[in-house]
Amino acid sequence: MNRWRRSVGELQARRRPLLECQRAQAAFIKVTACLQLQATCLGSNSDCSRLREELGETRALAHSLCTGLQKRLTTLLTQGELPQEERAEAERLWVLFLSGLEIFQQDLQKVILLQELFPLKQPRDRLSLVNTGGSGDGIGVTGRVTMSQMPWPKTQDQDPCPDLSTQISQLEAMAQEMLRKVNVPFWSVEATQEAWADSVDTEQDDEPVEEMSVENVAAGPQRLGGCCHYPGCRVLCLLN
Amino acid sequence: MTIRNVRDHGQRYRPRMACLKKMEALVVEMQDPKSGVKSQTQRLVITTIPHAITGEDIVAWVANRFNIDAREAQSIGTLMVAFGYVYPLQDHKRLIIKADTSLYRFQTPYFWPAQQWPAEDTDYAIYLAKRNIRKKGVLELHEQEHYNNLHKWMNHKWDFIVMQAKEQYRAGKERKKPDRVVFDCQERAYWVVHRPPPGTISAIDYGLDRLTDPSADEVKKKKTMDYYRRIVIFTQQCIMRSRVKSSVSLGAIVKYITTCKNHDPFLATCLPSNPWLTDDTTYWELNMPNVEIPTKMRVERWTFGFRELLSDPRGRADFRLFLKKEFSGENLAFWETCEDLKWGAAATMKEKAQQIYKTFLAPGAPRWINIDGKTMDITVKGLVHPHRYVLDAAQTHIYMLMKKDSFGRYMKSTVFKETQKKAISPEEHRFSDAQLEQNAKKRKPNLSPIVLRQWEEEEKARLAASGPMDITQLCKFTAPVPHLAVYTGICEAQLSHGRERLPPSPSFPALPNSAACPSPISVAIDSTPASERKFEGQGGSAAAQFPSIAEVPLEPRVSASARAPDDPQPASQKSRVALSLGRFLRRGCGNASVLASLSPKCHSAMGGRVQPLSREPISQPQPKRIANFFQIKVDIPPECRIYPIDSEDEENECTSGVRGTVKEIICPWESITKQDQAG
Fold this sequence. Notes:
The complex is a heterodimer of chains A (240) and B (679).
Chain A: H1 8-40, H2 49-78, H3 84-117, H4 142-147, H5 164-181, H6 209-213, H7 233-239
Helix pairs in contact in A: 1-2, 1-3, 2-3, 2-5, 3-5
Chain B: H1 18-30, E1 40-43, E2 48-54, H2 55-66, H3 70-83, E3 86-88, E4 103-106, H4 121-134, H5 141-153, H6 158-173, H7 177-194, H8 225-240, H9 246-260, H10 275-278, H11 282-286, H12 296-302, H13 306-311, H14 313-326, H15 329-343, H16 349-361, H17 373-382, H18 392-412, H19 414-422, H20 433-441, H21 449-466, H22 471-474, H23 520-538, H24 571-587, H25 591-598, H26 600-606, H27 612-615, H28 622-625, H29 638-641
Antiparallel strand pairs in B: 1-2, 2-4, 3-4
Helix pairs in contact in B: 2-3, 4-5, 4-6, 15-16, 15-18, 17-18, 23-24, 23-25
């Protein structure tokens, strides 16, 4: 198609689905990260019904992001002719989305198991919660969750969020369907980020845990960067 | 994304880990505010965190709960830490419980080990990326390696991993400080358990994956006719199996236990100390495969049985030394090469098998081993289409030979007694707790297997080089005269030394170089043929001893008796034998000495291969002696070749132009064109 014929608007219109997908993917990653944090508190002494509700909300958001993203990506890749870079980008998103889906599914499986193991129906159930040192004040990630929004209008084909076990099987079915419909060789996707990514922020107020835990101990020598004292070890470690 | 829908019948399920459920129940019990473990607060610089428990509290609680003693409670505690239900706050890399005031904390259930889901690599990658993002250069060496590997293998989802790591990091920062600290500790502890640093033992290690999912419900089988028929067949087969009386099998177990119980590191103390317990590797160093002086326990093990001796490289080396002194090392060499064939690479198998045949089994081989005719038949037939186990029968035969014969003599030999005397018995270590800690800190990784392998190869090469007496090399006069076709010439000079001089066997490559320790029976029986043969040679066909390099397979040795060996031979040679026997009897002379030379005692004195002095003189008359060296080489029993050094006629020995010995050995499956030629 003759490039010069396209107006800017047209170009933007063409790219919109892809941009939407990118934003959705970023949001999805954010939401799953929050979900994981919330899941780590299940069964611990900071577990409470409020946490579980929040978990449910996060899950619902993830669900809608998920389904929407799946539809859009599938349509993008199966229909519509995309120019080369866009196709590559779409494939990259495809692979990233599938990876995210897997992690999401794993987390959900753990959630369902933990919720079964530590039911909170009765007050005395609280006795069996594991004392992990959490503060019990909630996670504080809810703000983050609500921050991430879906890049497409909300009312569009919104199915209600299914319950946990259904959701897990739905995810599984989704993944299978995606793999069936679109044939993307995932090894063709290359990483755009470098291996040793830079720090996110410059603020270093975060002391790493290593240094913190030396606190109460007759401090042993700090051994960063080597797994043992043996001087020749480095070489051998690399060999192993 | 990972590949799904793998339809092969591979094993990918983790086995049932029943201990996990029990452990979980125990941990939940420990949470009870009244009857559980008392908790304290951990003080850090910036904050305090509750719910820390001391090691001694845990141990005391467990001991109380189960009514067991402190040591067992401590090992249960260590198991809890090793599985990751409890993690140490100080010294987080050592997953043990210390029954003192060191602090621990419970792991959140999200990070508990689960049987259904292994710790995924993707998650590990995200964790490492997160740590790297938070602060550069904080990853340890093995973690860096893993990171690089994961980057390579998960390159397609690397973007996802980095993005997820960043998001998790950001999300984590939203939390309050103490919670963040706790979460970081938890995550770190989780990965120490599931991706242990190299050199540490992991409790999660469960061996192989299973074919069926142990968590899956068993499908109720419909009891059809087919089902019952299979059950019937199964039980019938059970009945048909051979049975052993339990007294017999139990007796065997009891015997084994009584012999070996002091050598079991679980039941008796290791001297000097068990490295797995005390982190002191002296025990391993003292028991290296090629150590100069073995330990007393090790030497004692060798006396348990021949297999123990052979399987220990040091023992095998000692045995090899002994056999070398007895000049019967070819048995062991043959056995070892057979092992090499069995376990070696498939590509070189054919060549190896051929090489083995040429070196050990062929008539006229440099290191001929003495196996009976039937086995030899089977082997040779098998060698037409060689496979990995083609030499199994021969190997077993030789193994039995060594076991029944050489082993006994080795046990009584000076070599062994020397080794026993020199063996050391180290003192037991008695480490204090502080020393144990020191040792743990000083743990080094093992020698790399690459290095060990190189040593092994060098050792093998050294052995091969120093090795084996190739009789052909030993004798000076091994000027092979191949293609010595039929020599009807009669070797004259031979005659004088009829007797012992037996076949300058040694110089004879072909002479069967069987163990210098042939069983008495074979000695007796073989002596006859030997002498005949000798005379065959003497009487002009010194060749008798010359193994004919022809394609004729070796005759059965022993029983074959004097005659048997001849049977397979063409008739012409039969006559020769008869002729020689006649000559022998005529000779009469030296019978006694001949037989004397054939007696076992001489064997040990001489040993088949080395014919040091005797050889010297002979040289000239070679060609004459050749005679019919092409004839069948009957299994020349070792005696043949062994002649006492003190024999006076040494000089004239060797004559037997046996030199004619052909160097080339033709494998029977090769073209049988040169029936009458030497090679």
